[in-house]
Design a protein that fits this description.
40% helix, 16 helices, homodimer, globular
């Protein structure tokens, strides 16, 4: 298709860049405006990249724009969780079936590939340009750069400018826009495990590491250079919290007592802890996402906490769904935009809740024998009935044809059934002789 | 007590003025900054005043500052709801026991009394001054007037500047402030029933009139001049909605078919409908309410929909509770502010939900025979056991010693018991012989 329609995208992050690429491939003229400098010009600090978990939903979109293979090559497969106890004992729990994995990938590396891909498709990127104003009636964007201002008109404006979106702020300023921001009591701080000799990995490479400590946790994801990026998720306030660790001695003692095997691998712990910011974690929702010809998408429309590893994947799925609707409705934006938001909202609400729920699973339950037994029984159910019983984590992470809202609803049903199973006596020794077929039959019931 | 502490209040509405008066009486130096002009200078359009329902919680605060009697004299008691059917049939439902009533009072009239009262106590009011910036660290307020700006420092700043509070906006700009705004699908429009000959009331004077129409409703409250202020609560969109009434003919036909007895009393209906704005209805929540020495209060902290008639009463109760805490803690603001928000938040959350629930009751259930029977049984329970069974409406409206959150919790318990009662066969004819004592006993159970 050829069109003279001109689309503005605010935000050159992964979602904005991917959407630009999708739209350029459809034949649109696309300009992307980004508040920050071009991240390709910055010196990337080797081994200090922030990594994300890329999974099936995200990969499907990348495949559609032709970048899947290139990105798969720089990603590190993580086949399961590896849990570290206080005593340094290691246990592991696969994410799915044999051959299913999520991918640790550098956020900035991924972003660069997407920007380059979009540019190759004719997208114009404009960096250091701040959205100062959006006129939702006239579909104009007022941009600030070096103190100067310019106003540009478009056929549509898409805000992919993240949780603190300027486009959403303009939307919110109009009447009857629902909005919420909910912070959790935990913040996070990034820490670092450097590579061993010759770029070797000092922990199991192909896994997401978790140090579950009930009310908080640390995790680590592998980087291609052999290092791991660790994230401590920790309460802001309280007896054991960011606020309670006041002195160097407090910090070192806490880590030595709580994560002894990790501390041994963290030579710069104290420096990292003191230098790296403590950041907050928020769920943001808004609705509608559309006014006239302006839309918000990705984190700008639905920022979620990171505990399901789905924030970016959900944003990428937004792009794929929008592109699909443009296909179906012959690029009639007046039809597509309202349809997109009403269809997609329930799914992003679902993943927002699932992400909150998964924090409890990660920091507490993965260290719990009953929980591991439950996972084992569900894995067997899935093995025996691969279509009728797909564990919720797998539906969310490995199945891009099951909507988030379906995964949530089916997962609730599974939970009720499994709650009953878990009440059975001597289950740890008898679970293999459960009537699995009857359990699956309960899934078909209303 | 004498103090040299200097308090700024943003907003000279009823809550800001009342709080100013409370604090001036405690000996504080108080300045109130209001964006709008002094409403005392405006010509009040006779009979066109917007009225509010003032009830026990609000009156208690007014009594504490010595203005209760003056305001009681200009209020019109409303002893119950009078329902108008489409056929013009009238039925009524008392609000509480004999002698209990809510009060229709002019918002602007009440506001003037409070401003005058506060001024008499030494409060300085500054009109036409917009809050441009709040520095939460330094407790300074930057105010704009006629293009000029000044920055003033205070010992505390209190934002009583309503649902779209500038002080709350400053608070929200900081990290880790939860916030939500939720619009309902209905908007409202004010209409008017003028007085009859010699200022006579053309509908029953001492009542709140409701035209319940299931998915929407109109209400009317009496004014001292014999007129009634009507409010149509109506969906924005849909088959029967503000959007669907397009022409003069649509409007007239809709009112004639839907509110025939009211239309006969509304000579300016068409003009009012076309001239008066259609406004939206929102629930707003935020937390924390306090950062350092800055607090939000009233609608700025917890705007609710109007269906329980408690918005202003809740704001007045905020002032009373804050004043009480200042008493108890010897004006130690560092102790009082955090205590105020943590104590009060659950109560304002409760009234927010109760107000949403009451819309369904008002627009739909008050026309329902089962609902009226339920109310009759509860009234009998209250008569027989005046302390053990107080209907929820009475707890909220007539009992200032029962917290909103308690009223909500007790009301839920009552509802479960009454749901069981309502399942009994032939209840309409047999309810008088119910075992009332046993029902009350269930309220004592866990």
């Amino acid at each position: 298709m050829k069109t003279d329609k001109h689309i503005a995208i605010a935000g050159a992050g992964p979602v904005g860049s991917l959407l630009a690429l999708y739209l350029a491939k459809r034949g649109y003229r696309v300009d992307v405006f980004e508040r920050r400098p071009d991240l390709r010009a910055e010196t990337l600090q080797a081994g200090r990249s922030i990594n994300l978990a890329l999974s099936t939903r995200g990969i499907r979109a990348l495949d559609e724009v032709g970048l899947g293979d290139a990105l798969r090559r720089v990603a590190i497969p993580m086949h399961g969780r590896v849990m570290h106890s206080v005593q340094g004992q290691i246990s592991s729990l696969p994410y799915g079936k044999q051959g299913q994995f999520i991918n640790s990938i550098s956020r900035s590396g991924l972003n660069v590939v997407l920007i380059n891909g979009a540019e190759a498709q004719g997208v114009n990127f404009h960096f250091n340009q701040r959205v100062a104003h959006v006129d939702l009636q006239k579909t104009t964007l007022t941009l600030q750069q070096n103190g100067g201002e310019k106003k540009l008109a478009f056929d549509a404006i898409i805000g992919a400018d993240g949780a603190f979106s300027a486009v959403r702020a303009a939307l919110q300023f109009t009447d009857r826009v629902d909005y919420s921001q909910d912070y959790i009591d935990h913040g996070y701080k990034e820490l670092h495990i450097p590579a061993g000799p010759n770029g070797s990995f000092l922990l199991e490479k192909n896994a997401l590491h978790i140090w579950p400590r009930e009310s908080f946790m640390m995790i680590a994801l592998p980087n291609p250079d052999g290092s791991f990026t660790c994230t401590l998720f920790f309460p802001f306030e309280g007896a054991t919290s960011f606020a309670s660790l006041k002195t160097n001695e407090d910090i070192v003692a806490f880590f030595k007592n709580t994560f002894p095997d990790a501390v041994a691998l963290m030579p710069d712990l104290l420096h990292d802890y003191q230098t790296n910011p403590t950041s907050s974690l928020v769920t943001m929702k808004c609705y509608p996402w559309v006014k006239n010809k302006t839309l918000v998408i990705g984190d700008a429309a639905h920022a979620v906490v990171p505990f399901y590893g789905q924030g970016m994947n959900a944003g990428f799925e937004d792009c794929r769904v929008l592109n699909e609707l443009l296909d179906t409705h012959h690029d009639d934006w007046d039809v597509v935009l309202p349809m997109f938001q009403s269809q997609r909202k329930q799914d992003t609400d679902a993943i927002a809740q699932l992400a909150l729920d998964n924090f409890i699973e990660m920091r507490d339950l993965v260290a719990d024998a009953d929980f591991l037994l439950r996972k084992k029984i569900e894995a067997r159910l899935h093995e025996l009935y691969p279509e009728q019983w797909i564990p919720q984590y797998s539906m969310v992470t490995f199945h891009d044809t099951i909507r988030y809202s379906e995964a949530q609803a089916l997962g609730r049903k599974q939970k009720r059934i499994m709650d009953d199973v878990m009440k059975l006596p001597h289950l740890a020794t008898t679970w293999q002789s459960l009537d699995f077929q009857q359990l699956v039959r309960r899934m078909q019931e209303a």
